[in-house]
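Title: Prediction job returns without error message
Component: structure pipeline
Severity: low
Priority: P3
Assignee: unassigned

Description:
Job completed but the reporter wants confirmation the result is attached to the right record. Sequence as submitted:
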Amino acid sequence: MTAETLRHYDRIGLVRPSKVDEWTGYRYYTQDDLIRLKTIQMLQEMDISLKEIKRLLGLGDLKQIAVELDEISVRAQRKTQKLKEAKERIERARIYYMSKAERERHDAMFFRELPRRKIMISRTLNSPALDNLWNYHRHFFGQLKEEEREAFAFEDIAGVYRSRDESFMFAVCERYRDSPMLRELPQGRYLCAECAASDANVIRENLLGEAQKICGQRPQWSVDLVVIDGILSWGYEVQVLCPGR
């Protein structure tokens, strides 16, 4: 224990030195004082506050002490469970960000062959934001009836589907059954480009124009896949179906 800790214990009346030298200010503690200090240290390691420790040390009823410790034990179990859940969330986040970090990056337009994808659209969201992006699985499950949820699972992929007359956020389905909220992204060759969220409109127009040159007609829709680039930031991979002639 530091000298400041001992002075603090003295100020709050938790442990007072048996003697203080009036000339040097040195504090002297007896063997009983040391036992009390060690007990306090042990109780603090059990995540008990100094206020509670002071009250516990003042109790003279053993049954009451047992009741108090039982309540503290229940609190400790709750905290242990929360720490366990936090550790599991941290591990899931670590794996998620590692998978995103290993993703190949591109500085220009490029083609990507993509399989058929089923997406579930949102009834209420048309773009990602901090208050919906990190909870989007819950949002999409919340659109389903309770008896339907078991039939659905979602990949860690979200985005925005855009056409001339509609724009909505979507999640890519891993498992699904028929639903009016499902849309299909066809298999094929997609012209793609990565960009910051602020540049998405310009990049999308460039892709649509380039796809029109290649395919002979302007695509009617596009998707902006969310690309995580930080805990609180993201960009997009804009994708336009461009099968070629």
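Comment from assignee: result matches the submitted record. The chain has three domains: 3-58, 61-102, 110-241.
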